[in-house]
Amino acid sequence: MFRTIARYGARQAPGAWRAAMRALLSGQGVRGPAIREFEERFASYHGVRHAVAASYGRMAFYYILRALDLPAGSEILIPALTFWVVPEMARVAGLKPVFVDVDPHTYTLDPRALATALTERTRAVVPTHLYGQPCDMNAILTVAERHGLIVIEDCAHALGATYRGRKVGTFGHAAFFSFQLLKGLNTYGGGMAITDDDALARRIRRLAEAEPWPSALSVLGKLVLGWLQQVFISPRGFTFSLFPVFWLASLLGDRDVSAFLWEKIRRLDPLPASYRRRYSNAQAVIGLRALDHVEEWNARSRQYARRLSEGLAGIASLALPRPLPETEPVYYQYCIRVSDPEALTRRAIRRGIDIEMMHVDICSTLPLFASEARPCPIAETAAETRQLPVYSGLRPSDVERIVRVIREISRDLPPLGIAAGEVAAHGRFD
Ligand SMILES: Cc1ncc(COP(=O)(O)O)c(C=O)c1O
Predict the structure, then answer these.
(1) What single string gives the DSSP state of each residue in 345-381?
(2) Ligand 1 contact, 184 CB (< 6 A)
(3) What is the pTM of this model?
């Protein structure tokens, strides 16, 4: 059968979805003992004292911010390249996001750029371990300590990644994780805040637990919607649903039709009602089972990333990920820079491989943050990046195929380093 490769894969432990449904049918879909057990196991996985579950990763971040009780209008440094909800939630929490440029090799927060963004109102910084690559934590912590900044790690992409042998999320005052469908640990939505600070944890928990419980019907809706989305990105589901659409679109130009599937960029004040809910027991049942597998899943993605790096080395039109020394990324995404990203995407989809464009946002240029706009030239080059599939659900033969196809279709692209105008002068690459 013709097999296509979707850009995303969802992780799920065997039997977890059915276990969650059983919990729902037995009346323990909403409240139940799995929530506290999941929090405790999540905390001990990280070797920290406290973990508090939330309806979203963004809400875990929001509770951390509210629990810190920083003066209104305090500035919080956020990498310019991140998911737009992060600076938006900071704004909802009454803070002013200040965008900081990223490192040209890892695309994570550049510690050297922090100095340019500091003012007397700066109170916090958010190192985002983007695409599962740990940030330069030592350098960031040095700046943070010097200026008395609170450090909140965004680990939405990086569950299980390590920096100098220690798990990300354990370096700052607090950290948050996302359990959306595509993340390293998927519970069809949800998030977690972790911290070692007892008083902060108490305040975070008070905020999270003040929210109303979701209805059993809405928990069921999450599980069913998640299951459907999983079908759409499974090899067969993707081949007969989204793939033909992407393939046709590739004939009509370089419009990224997948953009229609993204969450609409918008103001989040007031917070949507669906955010203001507690995390459910059925989801925690899934999370507990996933925790038993996360190391094995991460090891597989890492092995696939190694194979991609080996197989794609030496191609002049591509720059491959360059994680920092002494880090172990989890490769939520395998991010490459490409001299002609549109041509690569178009050619790949025609060969049955769907590749992702950015996945996050260049927040410093979004109209939503017009009043916070700041030049962040490296983040702006992220439009030249693409993310190759590297998820643990791939087969080794899929990865070999990705290597073969990407080598073939990138061979005649112009070498990196040629300015965009000159790429145009090379003509359209088809
Ligand atoms: C970098 C980053 N931070 C935070 C989040 C927010 O997580 P959630 O969607 O669970 O609120 C995401 C979501 O994709 C993300 O990519």
Answers:
(1) HHHHHHTTB--B--SSEEGGG-GGGGGG----HHHHG
(2) no
(3) 0.96
pLDDT of 205 over the 90 cut: yes
Q: Are strands 318-319 and 334-338 parallel, antiparallel or unpaired?
A: antiparallel
Q: What is the mean pLDDT of the chain?
A: 94
Q: How far apart are CA 315 and CA 372, in angstroms?
A: 38
Domains of the chain, start order: 16-209 (3.40.640.10)
Query: Could you give phi then psi for residue 156, rounded to 5 degrees?
Result: -55, -30
Handedness of CA 203, 273, 284, 35 (dihedral sign): positive
Q: What is the sign, positive or negative, of the torsion defined by CA atoms of 334, 85, 168, 14?
A: negative
Closest CA to 133 of 100, 110, 101, 99: 110
Task: Give residue-wise pLDDT tens across range 310-319.
Answer: 999 999 999 9
Record the tokens describing residue 131, joined without a space: 């695409």
384 CA distance to ligand 1 middle (Å): 22
CA 75 to chain CA centroid, Å, is 23
Residue 421 pLDDT exceeds 60? no
Which tokens sit at 173? 């005052």
Q: Is the CB of 154 under 6 A from ligand 1?
A: yes
**Atom 4 of ligand 1: nearest residue by CA position:** 156
Backbone angles phi, psi at 91, to 5 degrees: -65, -45
Task: Identify the pLDDT of residue 422.
Answer: 45
Residue-level pLDDT at 259 = 76
Among 64, 78, 85, 275, residue to substitute to test ligand 1 (most atoms within 8 Å of Cβ): 85
157 lines ligand 1 (CB under 6 A): yes
